[in-house]
Design brief:
The chain has 367 residues and is α/β, with parallel strands linked by helices. It is built from 12 helices and 16 strands. The protein is elongated and about 70 Å long.
Length: 367
């Protein structure tokens, strides 16, 4: 049988890992394949947070196929864990099952692992190679790597705009700029993030539910940012069903203490932060979100919140849907920028005439 390169099997790991999208956060997406003499003995991926890791799924799959993994190579898209968390350490399972070689795409940045898994396997005589398709593995789990290294969530801004660059008409109305296929893709995007964030203007104007429709997937945490506490407590975003977080200024929380109690009784977590003129510091907001185990945030606010987030330097990606229609005038997608940043096109797709462009965002350091 023709010997295939390590990259061939690692690509399979990455394909498997992606199946866990939207289900495993704040854990990483991981895929694993067990190979011996060019034959797949078993494969698996991390399916849901708290569930078995990819390596265990692959070993179980090998057992179901009645294959003995002893002497085989385990390909895995992230370094195997060596600590006990919600599940036992994967290194123990690889050692006890006689795995002879481990090929990992990238070292786990989690301080609880971070090279310890590979070191342990090597102590038991298992050959380990790290770095096969590392860049692709990091890209797949950019949310995880950002969350672990910065202790704050990976943040993306999503906007739907007309061909002439407007997100709403002059009166603020904006419903159905894009077509159904684009809106379906936007809901699929929601499933990939832990939380969706909107500002007061979006809640007051559109009263969004922020749930997932058109596709299957879990509803994200709903986050509202409103320094002046102008949103009604009867808004759909505050309805029970998922976790809800409301950020406001300390001054507004004191002024509207009765409304704070109403939201608290509804199960909404109210977080009051110090703010100048009730303008909440979004870098502090993201820090608080990270403390609560939320690894990714999709901002679906209007011009004000999206621009403020970019100016605060907290955005990592942009998703811009552009329709064919034009408004001629109205509210622009973004306001005035006070910082310098670079956006690099990562992908471009079309949906029945609409276009979706995904950009990565990097900020230029001040001299």
């Amino acid at each position: 049988m023709k010997k295939r390169p390590d990259s061939y099997w690692m690509q399979r790991c990455l394909t498997l890992a992606a199946k866990g999208s939207g289900m495993v956060s704040p854990n990483p997406m991981v895929g694993a394949v067990i190979v011996k003499d060019g034959k797949v003995l078993g494969e698996g991926f991390h399916r849901q947070f708290g569930g078995p890791h990819a390596e265990i799924e692959a070993l179980r799959d090998a057992d179901l196929r009645r294959h003995d993994p002893a002497g085989a190579t385990m390909y895995v898209s992230l370094e195997p864990c060596s600590h006990t968390g919600k599940t036992p350490p994967c290194t123990e399972a690889l050692i006890s099952n006689g795995i002879a070689r481990v090929v990992a795409a990238v070292q786990d940045p989690n301080p609880k692992v971070s090279g310890r898994g590979i070191a342990k396997l090597r102590r038991y005589g298992i050959r380990c190679d790290v770095g096969v398709m590392e860049e692709e593995a990091r890209t797949l789990n950019r949310t995880f790597f950002t969350y672990i290294s910065a202790k704050r969530p990976f943040v993306a801004v999503k906007a739907a705009q007309t061909a002439d660059g407007f997100i709403a008409r002059p009166d603020g109305s904006s419903q159905w700029i894009t077509n159904l296929r684009s809106r379906t893709e936007a809901h699929r995007l929601r499933t990939q993030f832990d939380a969706v964030m909107v500002g007061a203007g979006t809640v007051v104007m559109d009263d969004p539910s922020l749930n997932v429709r058109h596709v299957e997937g879990r509803d994200p945490v709903r986050i509202v940012v409103d320094g002046r506490f102008t949103v009604p407590v009867t808004a759909q975003v505050f309805r029970p069903g998922v976790r809800r977080i409301f950020f406001t200024s300390r001054r507004s929380a004191q002024r509207y203490a009765g409304l704070v109690r109403v939201l608290t009784e509804l199960g909404v977590e109210v977080i009051a932060l110090p703010a100048k003129r009730d303008a909440l510091p979004l870098d502090r907001v993201m820090t608080e979100i990270g403390k609560r185990g939320i690894a990714s945030v999709l901002i679906e606010g209007g011009q004000q919140l999206s621009t403020a987030a970019l100016n605060a330097g907290v955005v990592h990606a942009l998703y811009l849907f552009t329709a064919r229609k034009k408004f001629g005038s109205g509210i622009r997608t973004f306001g005035e920028f006070s910082v310098s940043f670079r956006k690099q096109l990562r992908s471009r797709r079309t949906f029945a005439g609409d276009e979706l462009r995904e950009y990565s965002v990097t900020y230029r350091k001040r001299p």
